[in-house]
Amino acid sequence: MEILNNNIVLLALTFGIFYGARQLQKLTGWIVLNPILVTIVVLIALLKASGISYETYSAAGSYIEFWLRPAIVALGVPLYRHLGQIRRQFLPIFLSQLAGCVVGLVSVVGIAHVAGASRETVISLAPKSVTTPIAMEVCRAMGGIPSLTAAIVVTVGLFGAVFGFKVLEVWHVKNPYSQGLSIGTASHAVGTSRAMEKGQTYGTYASLGLILNGLLTALLAPLVLRLMGIQ
Amino acid sequence: MIRQCFIIFGCLALGEIVVWLTHITIPSSIIGMLLLTLLLHLRAIKVEWVSGISDFLISNMGFFFVPPGVALMLYLDVIKAEFVPIVVATVVSTVLVLVVTGWTHQLFKRHGDTE
Fold first, then answer.
1. Which chain B residue lies closest to A180 (C-alpha atoms)?
2. Mean pLDDT of chain A
3. Which residue from A226, B64, B75, B114 lies 20 to 30 Å from A120 (Cα-Cα)?
4. Does the beta-carbon distance from B109 to A175 stay under 8 Å?
């Protein structure tokens, strides 16, 4: 299918599949039918079936992915709107971020290592909870496989977006501030986009988790991995 | 629209410049976000000047993750070979991060603070 090598055709397909997936979710109301997840699965199946390489797709996809960084800059607006609240709550926010960051690094690295993952995979998994640009940078600096990290980061984000609020309910994390913060800490911008749908408060605390865990992971990941004897 | 784009891309560009000058390992987008927050806080920029584009970008952020997600197709072999460690480590750790962050925040959040 030669025509699928065309950037515009691939872009139209991506928009179309996403639109369809979103309609499907609205229709069924099933959280598992996350439009991002559905679109990724359908696109991979389609590309595999028609023998199109990822490189070909990514030439078109880069036009979409490009907007990720301006979108992260745009999170400065909700952050500004909630600055006062955040300043009053600084200590609980900072402490919970520190706990979440360290627990996340130690647990993913420890479990993957014990379960027999290769060294590269362990390193690539370490920054799984933070936003793609930070995660890839951290992974590269430590000698992992950055694009494997990118793929895992998106998967973790989807897991958080789809099941995050359920997990928090079950474990008695009930208030919107703690919920938002946890979602952003564990599942970065994908989780944050889900939290934004739930409401501004959830979304803002999620973006706070996204930022702080990003910064902490960039600073702490190399140290934690060295202490655990991985690096 | 042009002013809105100028502000967003201006902040991102300043982030790029900071990274270029200092070789810091923090992404330019995060620096740009903090810069935008600072400029809004200092009243150098009014919220109305950026709220249109920022609402648009934020509400569609999930969509921008589709192409990096499609990159998964490159690693189906690695993932198949190390399926159990990858999935168990990722799922358990993500649940732990969610719960530990939430609990810690609830624990230290002062009760009765109306925020």
1. B102
2. 90
3. B64
4. yes
pLDDT band at B113 (very low <50, low <70, confident <90, very high): low
Number of C-beta neighbours around residue A94 at 10 A: 15
Distances (CA, A) of B91 to A65, A81, A125, B49: 25, 33, 11, 41
Q: Does B64 touch chain A (CB under 8 A)?
A: yes
Q: What is the DSSP string of B60-88?
A: TGGGGGHHHHHGGGGGHHHHHHTHHHHHH
Tell me, yes or no, if B41 comes closer than 8 A to chain A by beta carbon.
Answer: yes
Please tell me the distance in Å from A23's CA to the nearest CA on chain B: 14
Burial class (CB in 10 A: 0-12, 13-18, 19+), A141: middle
Q: Look up residue A98 and give its amino acid.
A: L
A71 touches chain B (CB under 8 A): yes
pLDDT for residue B53: 94
Closest CA to A159 of A55, A65, A40: A40
Q: Number of A:B CB contacts under 8 A?
A: 323
Which two three-digit tokens encode residue A96? 């919970």
Residues 6+ apart with CB under 8 A from B70: A40, A43, A44, A47, A54, A57, A58, A61
> Which pTM does this prediction carry?
0.82
Residues A71, B85: C-beta atoms closer than 8 Å: no
Distance from CA of A108 to the nearest CA of B (A): 5
Task: Among A57, A125, A189, select the one facing B61 at the smallest CB separation.
Answer: A189
